Amino acid sequence: MARQARTGTLPERSLRMELHRRGLRYRVNYAFREPGLTRRRCDVAFTRCRVAVFVDGCFWHACPLHATSPKANESWWRAKLDRNVDRDRDTNGQLRAAGWTVLRFWEHEDVMDAADRVEAAVRSVEPARRRGTVGIDS
């Protein structure tokens, strides 16, 4: 499992390429500076409008449609995957409390649909930011 890519997976790269093609610029593998979010990163971050995008793998984040459970050392894996899901929920809550918009996608979701949702979220915040109603953090 140590050989599994932490960042730059095919679903993540596909989404990033589509977002870039649409003229959106972002940070990759962004580490949050919010209190309580140490060692937490998102796959794609739009720091000025505070939009965090996560592309979750079906195995590691227990997708309701495609999750599998290893048979060897089953109790350890169950606890590990449950902690991942709990950490995802905690991250979502803390980021939302800090004023971030959080978008999560499964690796099997359509890239174009995901890009549409990200673009809508980013573009809906940009006009407000230009008017000075939303703070800039970078």
If you had to describe this structure to a student in words, what would you say it looks like?
With 138 residues, the chain is α+β, with helices and mostly antiparallel strands. It has a single domain (10-127), classed as Endonuclease, Chain A. Helices cover 41% and strands 17% of the residues. The chain has three helices and four strands, in the order αβββαβα. The protein has helices at 10-21, 74-97, 111-131, and strands spanning 27-31, 41-46, 51-56, 101-106. A four-stranded mixed sheet has the order 1-2-3-4, with helices on both faces. β3, α2 and β4 (101-106) form a beta-alpha-beta unit. α1 packs across α3 (111-131). The protein is globular, with a radius of gyration of 16 Å.
Which key terms come to mind for this protein?
alpha+beta, 4 strands, disordered C terminus, globular, four-stranded mixed sheet, Endonuclease, Chain A
CATH topology: Endonuclease, Chain A
Q: Describe the strand arrangement of the main beta sheet, using strand numbers.
A: 1-2-3-4
Number of strands: 4
Mean pLDDT: 87
Helix/strand class: alpha+beta
Order of helices and strands: HEEEHEH
Instruction: Specify the CATH homologous superfamily.
Output: VSR Endonuclease
Distance between the termini: 35 Å
Helical content, roughly?
Answer: 40-55%
Strand percentage: 15-25%
Second-tier CATH architecture: 3-Layer(aba) Sandwich
Using only C-alpha atoms, the radius of gyration works out to 16 Å
Total individual domains: 1
What's the number of helices? 3
The global form is globular
Q: In the CATH hierarchy, what is the class?
A: Alpha Beta
Largest sheet features: 4 strands, mixed
Ranges where pLDDT stays below 50 over 5 or more residues in a row are 133-138
